[in-house]
Amino acid sequence: MSNHSETFKNKGYIVLPQALDAQDMTTLELSSKALYQRADQLLAELAESGERLSDFYKRQQNELIVVPEIDNPLKVCRYEYIDGYSETINREIMPKLKGFIEALTGSEFVLFKDKCNAKNPGGGAFDPHQDVIAYDQFQPVYHITAAIFLDDATLENGCLNFPENYLQDVAGLETEKRETPLGMLPILPSYDGGPDNGNIRQEVCDQIRWNTVTARKGDVVLFDSYVPHFSEKNDSQKTRRAMFFTFNAKADGNFYEAYYGMKRQEFDNPKFHVATPTAHAKLEN
Ligand SMILES: O=C(O)CCC(=O)C(=O)O
Hints:
By secondary structure, the protein is of the alpha+beta class. The chain has helices at residues 3-11, 22-49, 53-58, 82-85, 87-105, 166-169, 202-205, 256-265; strands at 13-16, 65-69, 72-80, 109-117, 126-129, 143-149, 160-163, 176-180, 183-187, 210-213, 220-224, 229-231, 242-249. The strands form three sheets. It has a seven-stranded antiparallel sheet. Strands 5-12-7-10 form a four-stranded antiparallel sheet, with no helix packed on it. 41% of the residues are buried. The mean pLDDT is 93.
């Protein structure tokens, strides 16, 4: 097993410093500008028309998906369906990300979902969670996300936090476990319903030794869907933009359109907004 695979197996994540080059970053900067503008425009148009996002997306199968911040219906928290919407990202960036994951795992992966967290100044915190619990309406039980940073992620603007070694930290806990290509991995106790729906329970978070993982623009962080993570609010005056492309093993099937088909039909379902600083995350199940 390579050093990278060993670290990934033990920690659930790995940082690939400057994995994207200057040309990739220019492509991403231009594409993300256009995507953000579209997201912003959609929120403004919907506020003007009074139509609810959940009604709008039921009849929009190819549109970019936008979710506003909890404290402001006009402020973009995140946009999704990037690969479906942006031919450039699909053509220029996606093969590279797939390549990073396939080099790490030695098997083929396909895109499951994607998103860009805009994390504008003042943009909200993402509470500690495991991504896998938001995906269990679909067959794959194991996913790997490539997080790419369009801005430096710092302590001040809300970089990601991952555990030093959560498998050791929670070894004594009785938890449900799922069989994955990396062995049996735990589903940690989380809050069910209410404003903390999907967040890992506080007493479990307290047991975990957390590390801040700062990143530079152009770095890629690969993490699996079981490793707990969170980020604080953006307390700086600039954006902290990061895109997250989540893949599943090709052998498990291709669910990208099915995932977004369901999200468009059930936009308000809190399942699709676990641990996000959006009003949707706070709706009752
Ligand atoms: O963008 C962030 O800071 C956190 C992202 C995250 O954990 C998520 O979107 O599930």
